[in-house]
Amino acid sequence: MTKISIMNVNPYYLDRNKIPEQRLWQAVLAQSVNDTVYGDYRSLQTAGERYDSEKWVNLKNTDFKFTCELAGYSPEYIYKKVKKLLEKKGEK
């Protein structure tokens, strides 16, 4: 017998139920992680900005933790994922 799920797991459906502010903070978090992991540092104005983008993803940083919480994510989870991505990037 097959199991039938009555929940729609389509990401667009799930995203539809979030408040606009949460989606905004998810976009802010996604952009900061993208800048940290895959950022084109040639577009940054100073070396300090590059350092700041990498330093921002830190569990001691209250802004990072607050942004994760506003986006509806665990700061520890996001931190682990970003560190794993940075390690993979360093291996290449």
Short overview:
By secondary structure, the chain is mostly helical.
Globally, the shape reads: globular
Mean pLDDT: 78
The poorly predicted ranges are 1-8
- Rounded to the nearest angstrom, the radius of gyration is 16 Å
Structure overview:
With 92 residues, the protein is an all-alpha fold. The protein has one domain (18-91). It has helices at 11-16, 20-38, 47-56, 62-71, 75-91. Helix 2 (20-38) crosses helix 3 (47-56).
Features:
mainly alpha; 0% strand; 92 residues
List strands and helices in order, with pairings.
Blueprint: H1 11-16, H2 20-38, H3 47-56, H4 62-71, H5 75-91
